[in-house]
Design goal:
The complex is a heterodimer of chains A (372) and B (570). Chain A is α+β, with helices and mostly antiparallel strands. Chain A is built from nine helices and 18 strands. Helices cover 23% and strands 30% of the residues of chain A. The two termini of chain B are 48 Å apart. The chains are: A alpha+beta (372), B mainly alpha (570). Chains A and B meet through helix 2 and strand 6 of A and helix 1, helix 20 and helix 21 of B.
Amino acid sequence: MRRKDSPGVPSPGAGRDRPAGLAIDEVTVRYPRAKRGDAPVTAVDRVSAQVPWGTVLALLGPSGCGKSTLLRAVAGLEPLAAGHIYWTEPAAASAGATGTAGGGTVELSRLPVHKRGIGLMFQDGMLFPHRTVAGNIGYGLARSGRDRAGIRRRVDELLDVVGLPGMADRRIGSLSGGQQQRVALARALAPSPRLLLLDEPLAALDAALRSRLLVDLREILQRERATALFVTHDQGEAFAIADSVAVMCSGHIVQTGAPQAIWTHPADEWVARFIGYTSVLPAGHGVAGLPDGPVALRPAALSADPAGTVTGTVLSARPSPDAVRATVELAGSSGPVTAQALSRDLPPRGTHLTLRVDSSGVAALPPATGEG
Amino acid sequence: MTVASSVSAAGPRERPGDGWRWLRRVGLVLLAAIPTAALLVFFCYPVLTLLGRGLFVDGRLDLSAFGDVFARPRMRSLVAFTIWQAAASAVLCLLLGIPGAYLLYRKRFPGRAVLRAVLTMPLVLPTVVVALAFKILLTPGGPLGSWGLDETVAAILAAHVFLNYGMVVRTVGSSWAVLDDRPLAAARSLGATPLRAFLTVTLPALGPAITGAFTMVFLFCATSFGIVLILGAGRLNTLETEIYRQTQEFLDLRTAAVLSIAQLVLVTLLLVVVAALRRRTDTTQRLDSGVRRPTRFGLGDAVAAVVTTLVALAFLGVLGTLVLRSLREPGGGFGLANYAALGTVGQDNLMLVPATTALANSLRAAALAAVLAVIVGVALSVVLARRPRSRAARRLLGAVDGFMMLPLGVSAVTVGFGFLIALDSPPLDLRSSPLLVPIAQALVALPLVVRMVLPVLRGIDDRLRQAAASAGAPPLRVWWTVDLPIARRAFGGAAAFAFAVALGEFGATSFLATPQRPTLPVLIARLIGRPGELNTGMALAAAVLLALLCALVLLVVEAVSGANARIGGF
């Protein structure tokens, strides 16, 4: 029943049964050129990704990598230059609703925004300033077939979910930033959308509030069994909240996997550095005591310990909350390499440190990478 | 649960979401058709007809008229005078208005609201009323008669400043009110004196607002009609009054057409500059952090306070004289005789209808004009507020945006006279229709409505609409539940302002209002032009009444759309 109209590579599996959830299939988004003579900007370049039903996929990447554009494309706010976006209902739900064999698949990219059945949450709330808290949360329920009392019940239910009971009649202006984000989440959840799209929902909050709301958000998403796309530039957020993480760089997804898998096996040096590895030693570094081949090291990989196996010379050192971070020079077979290490006390420059290797802070990189 | 409907909606189309986007595009085109049709029929057609009458001789283009007209030194000096008096008026307005903008929008002090009201009230006063107020102030035997300024350029400049001061204060002030303080603090911390910091940081930041205000004032003064006609007393003429004289007195359509074209060129040049400046404003506008700390009362504050106080006193003097004179009875002493005379047809049966009937005509026409202007203006603003992706569409919108300002600059006299000669045959025979005056007035008010509504619609964060759409709202419901509630105040304010403008409109109306159905400004002008103390008294009483009505409308605008309503500004 679907027509193939992808101009590029035929989308693999376009006609097959799909697993329940969201499927992003070879999606390309281009921005028109700003001036005559400029090349059009390809913000998202033939990206494919899956979000299985009831799971959270974090799109992680630096600003300008195209992650928000991809989210907006899924929402229907950016036209696709190529590709498709599909939604497949889980078997139980679709059997009752449509009777379609093979679990009703919808091509979201053929639908206008308001028919996609999504919940969208922005960085800075974007609550309707002229409506109360209840008016905001109930906005998407207008077409739900509920009567006034039913809408109110659903609003109260959601206020409980996001931890703001009794705030229904407050004005938006009287809410703090954190409360506004909670209301925004409630508004997005209210119509029970098939898919939740969260665009850096915590980025505008201060650090303490962010970590508190992050824990709540994770709990709420789990409790509601939400299928969600969560865009963030903060690797801590991504790993804390997501079932799987897709790392994006200049319009491409460079690695997808469970947080732990990305953590232990970053695809290349760029990913390793982006998720918090501070040093990368090239292939053939020749430092005794470290695995051969290109390796990425977190500061915790090397710590000062008289019983250690690696020695290094301190170039500089400065205190950080848990331990002193030192930049050390390690003697390699083909010349010195620098790395970060932890120490209990502040070593003066030039000190020779004996370092213990903690393998949980070391990730081997694929052989092709690690140069420069 | 919505799977069934969604599947059926996903028909076999070529491109994702094409059908909906196409539908919306059709809706927008239809919406754009309302203002386009209105402008084509009621602006382009009459103006082009008038120009054609002047430029085509026996069906052939004949441009020799240009040579004939501008060979006359009188005509060349007319153009020069039009430009320099407008520039001088605008510069004076800025010099006096910038301190006022600072005081009224950056400082808090008791009585600020009253002062703001006094200083911006003249903005909505009809030009006829202002001209009359200055006339009786400066006329020999008047309170300032000994200054010898009657029928001089100084009188015209003073009246222009009086009328447009509020525009500068509002345009510059509303930008200043939301200006980020921190660059100024940075400049001061780098060792700049308050004056240097002001000149190097604040002034450039306000640049777009200041140039915008300058252009608007220049535009209004270059096309000023009532002021120059009454205060210039036939000796001083701008292009606008000359077009009127050529058509009304000498019936010389060719010369009038040439002068209209000259004015059109002047205005178009100016609008191109404005458009370029506005494009810069869009990118350089920086908003406040929202925190405002009280600052010490400094030298700059003192200067601003003194200048603004003097301006306010002068304004009160002008208005006070008008009110007092209207209360002076023909036989000496004070009373309401002039107001009582509004029920009569004037000394020597000057008019066909009493002034009270003219007032009713004015109110009726202005109400209709306000409705028309708001319908067309809102439709246009909704279209212009869109930010299309393609560059071509953006260009097109930019061009329409500029084109919309044309009625503001094209002489109201040209519009009025164009109506008279173009809309006189079926299917557009409106000469005797009571709709003619309201349509012309709506045309004059339209650009001002767009200027008030468009920034509000543009200011609505697009993500609010996107949030609504993602929650399942189709495009019309998005407009109804997001745009409309937020912009409702601006719509109300624009309607009231359009009403005030239409109430005081004189240039076009003076052509179109028949003697049997005059509006109040037309009647006032007629009364001024005639001898007779009772006629002057009646004109004064009618002017005060008109001024009160307009001031009342301003109060409504303030109350409805808040103190920062951008009346007539950018």
